[in-house]
Amino acid sequence: MLRFAGLGVAMDNAPDEVKLAADIVTLSNDEDGLKVVLEKYCY
């Protein structure tokens, strides 16, 4: 699914196989990783 998304994003605390399939790895969910990605790619 990450490969077909256009921009696959994994959280830092995701399993290694998920992070390997992603285009970018952001901070963990405890460190507001989603916020970081949204601010970078959606503004």
Automatic annotation (TrEMBL):
Transmembrane segments: none
InterPro entries: HAD-like_sf, HAD_sf
A Pfam family matched in the record: Hydrolase_3
Superkingdom of the source species: Bacteria
GO molecular function, one term: phosphatase activity
One annotated Gene Ontology cellular component of this protein: cytosol
PANTHER family in alphabetical order: HAD SUPERFAMILY HYDROLASE-LIKE, TYPE 3, PHOSPHOSERINE PHOSPHATASE
Name this polypeptide is given: Uncharacterized protein
Origin species: Paenibacillus donghaensis
Lineage start: Bacteria, Bacillati, Bacillota, Bacilli, Bacillales
